[in-house]
Amino acid sequence: MSTAGVRRSGPGELIAASVTGSSSGLPERLFRARGPPGHRPPCPAWLHHLHHPSHAGRADRGRRQGRPGLAQGQETRMKIGIIGAGNIGSTLTRRLTALGHEVAVANSRGPQTLAGLAAETGARAVSASEAVPGADLVIVTIPEIRVPSLPPGLFQGMPDNLIVVDTGNYYPRQRDGRIREIEAGLPESRWVERQLGHPVIKAFNNIYAQHLAEKGLPADSPGRIALPVAGDDARAKRVVMGLVDELGFDPVDTGDLNESWRQQPGSPVYTADKDAEGVKQALADAVRQRAPEWQATPDSPGTFEAPA
Length: 308
Description:
The chain is an alpha/beta fold and 308 residues long. The chain contains nine helices and ten strands.
């Protein structure tokens, strides 16, 4: 999807991915908001799930060598499908093609609307159904409310080891309206996983698209931003964490997908651009109860300018 005409009024806005069609009229930007100050959860055993991988043996930034976490024998270059060409989707398309990956990108309006992005990056513009077969990893980066509208059986028959990354966030008052299961406490990405019928890894949901594009740093750089990654499959999570590292950010393991609420909107790690130690602490400080501004009301959804 083209992002032409999207206004960026300042650092208080979170730029997020969207494949919202022209019929919706919804803007692709989201405001930045924080939940209330959190407290350390009464489950210290959870801290054992936090993991910040060693930087030993990383490749130099300009060299294409094997990434941490890739399965033995897997080539450096991955085939990556990206479903959603809003701000996050187009940013990942640019960054990942620049790193040498083979990218196929899709949106809700058809490949012909992605000709500019394809020409700029060398990515293939495809339909959503064409972005999945043959991919090593698929990134789903669309509004939560649009996930059930993806082609039926999109991941049916796909191999179990296909890695699927969910970058989405639930914005009930601005865009998505009430999703009952999420309002009842189901982690957002667990809901997405159920809609897709395939396991997902949650990543890239808590960073501004502009920062994802511009603020990656070489390994061991002071102040390198860290990004949380949650998921149930250890191998898949290692691959995604390796990709986060390759993009210039320190990956931090949130835990399994049931713990992914710790990186949802309103949490201390959301859009905070913390380093690895800061991300670990923010995940530990998260409070599960959704703050009122992140809960649907009887009038939801409104708009991003006037949440309801």
